[in-house]
Amino acid sequence: MGRDPPLCPPQPLGPQFLSRCTNSCTALLVETKIVASALHAVATPRIVDLACPKIKIEGLCYPRERTDMPIRPITQAALLNVPSPRTVSLAKAKTLHQDYLPDRDPYWPVSYAAAHSKISPRIEELANPSARTPMHIVYYDPSVFNVKPAALKAQCSPRVQELAEPLTR
Asked: Signal peptide position in this chain (predicted)?
C-alpha cells in the first residue's frame, strides 16, 4: 500500500521549467528515496479529516432558521455567562472632568450691548487710514528727494562732529 492520494499529491513541474530544462538539467535532478515504512503508512480518520479543506460560507452571515436569531451562532456558555464587577466597571464609559466645558456652538445670539453700541469719535478717527499721497504721484514727483531748508541750515554739536571724524591709527 503506497501513499494516500488525497493527502499529499505531488506538485507537477511547471511548463516553464520543463521548456527550459535540457538533457544536462535532467541529469542533475536528485532522486528521492522514500523509506519503506512511509510507503506502507496508513492515515487515521482524524488525519484525513484534518487534511480536508475547511468549508467556508460565502459572505459574513450564517444560515438562520428564524429572523430573530443572531447572525453568528452564540454558544450556550456565552449566553449564560455573568460578568464580574471588574468587567462591568471596565465596560463603563470614561466620565468627563467636573470642570469640563463643552465646545461653544458655532451659532450664538449677539448680546444687546454689542448690537446697540455707539462708536466714539476717537475710534472713528483711528479707523480711517492715514492720508498719504498716492504712489503714482510720489513716484514721478521730482521734489520728493529734495532736502528741506531746515535740514540744510542745521548745525551739529561739537561732540557729534568729533564722533564723525575717523580714528587715526
From this structure: none
- Cα–Cα distance for residue pair 127/119, rounded to 1 Å: 10
In single-letter form, the type of residue at position 59 comes to G
DSSP, collapsed to helix, strand or coil, labels residue 37 as helix
Task: Name the amino acid, one letter, at 164.
Answer: A
Lookup: cell for 22: 535540457
Give CA–CA dist 39/4, Å, rounded: 9
Say what the alpha-carbon torsion angle 31, 36, 40, 44 is, to the nearest 10 degrees.
-90
CB atoms within 10 A of CB 43: 15
3-state secondary structure of 42: coil
What pTM was estimated for this model as a whole?
0.23
**Residue 107's pLDDT is what?**
86
